[in-house]
Amino acid sequence: MKLALVLYKYFPFGGLQRDMLDIAQVAAQRGHQVTVFCSAWQGARPAGIDLHRIPGRGLSNAGRMQCFARHLAKALKGAKFDRVVGFNKWPGLDYYYAADSCFAEKAWRQRGMIYRMTARARCYLAFEQAIFSPASATRIFQLSAIERDKYIEFYQTPKARFLALPPGIPADRRIPQDWRRVRERTRQALGVGPEQTLLLAIGSGFRTKGLDRSLAALRDLNMPQARLLVVGQDNPRPFIQMVRRYGVAEQVEFLGGRSDIPELLLAGDVLLHPAYRENTGNVLLEAMVAGLPVVCSDACGYAHYVAEENMGHVVASPFEASAYSQAIRSVLAKGHEHWREKGAAFAARADVFSRASVAVDMLEAGLAAN
């Protein structure tokens, strides 16, 4: 199979980016010819996968996306790919990997008419329409049933075009047998003492992930022994100002993007993820299989795993800061040994590792059926 994967920008610490690369590598390992189209690529180029950069120029995000879409159509024309899979919303896709939330829901329920008239909104709505319209033939890799139902509501997309995928977190997130040793070593390297409480906020896009809520909670908790490590690729400046304003500057550290997430998960005492919007939230499952409890908002698509497995606490909407702070205290009161045991049991029985393989299975089956 000659496979084209389309992602606007690749950087090594984004969840969508990792998902794309996982699918690309599984397809390449099965002998398929894989080409990735993008406007920018940060980090090492993967072996066995072709990389094709196409321009995305413009004075605005919408202008750059439209430029990219035009050049993408030219690049794909005549290339004779068997399947074109988009990880952002573009016209002309065979499959769309639905990691992003429904833009129409935001435009019509959270914004006004003036916003919908902007070039940005009109561009994004048109790209979304190209995928989800009943007239479109694009099939959709579904990651969240909640978001699927929103798309069906706003576009009347036939339900049969949605293909449900299981989660697909890295297998190295499972709690290892020597987790105590790794935990101690990592905490020492981070300068975290045995009596300190280590809070983790992991994910690029600090605003969307609700970092402001976690910083406010750190202030309200009044736990001088607590430290909050913020891991992810984003501009920290607005949040550094917030940290100073809250008087917790000595307790917060911005680490940037990191490749040692498994070790950090073992070192931590709780994952904080009070996102405003989160289609899925792979990091919730990554924490759970590592035995790290999670306190998250119910806006996260994978929050139901936390609730069903009692692996922390899900803060209900409408979000209340006091409920969030109390949930953190409640989770921390049980101690890390309790959570590691529960996490190991969850990892042993849950199907949360197979998404990339299942996606490639579906692409192969679709091709064989034609």
Task: Provide tags for this entry.
17% strand; Rossmann fold; six-stranded parallel β-sheet; 15 strands; 2 domains; 15 helices; 370 residues; alpha/beta
Give me a quick take on this structure.
The chain has 370 residues and is an alpha/beta fold. 44% of the residues lie in helices and 17% in strands.
Q: How would you sum up this structure, described in words?
A:
This protein has 15 helices and 15 strands. It has 370 residues and is an alpha/beta fold. Strands 5-3-1-6-7-8-9 form a 7-stranded parallel sheet, with helices on both faces. The model has no long low-confidence stretch (mean pLDDT 96).
How do the helices and strands line up, and which of them pair or pack?
Layout (H helix, E strand, L loop, with lengths): L1 E5 L2 E2 L4 H15 L3 E6 L1 E2 L8 E4 L7 H16 L6 E4 L8 E4 L4 H7 L3 H4 L2 H14 L6 E4 L2 H11 L6 E3 L14 H12 L6 E6 L8 H11 L4 E6 L5 H10 L5 E5 L4 H7 L2 E4 L8 H8 L4 E4 L5 H7 L2 E4 L5 H12 L3 H14 L5 H15 L1
Parallel strand pairs: 1-3, 1-6, 2-4, 3-5, 6-7, 7-8, 8-9, 10-11, 10-13, 11-12, 13-14, 14-15
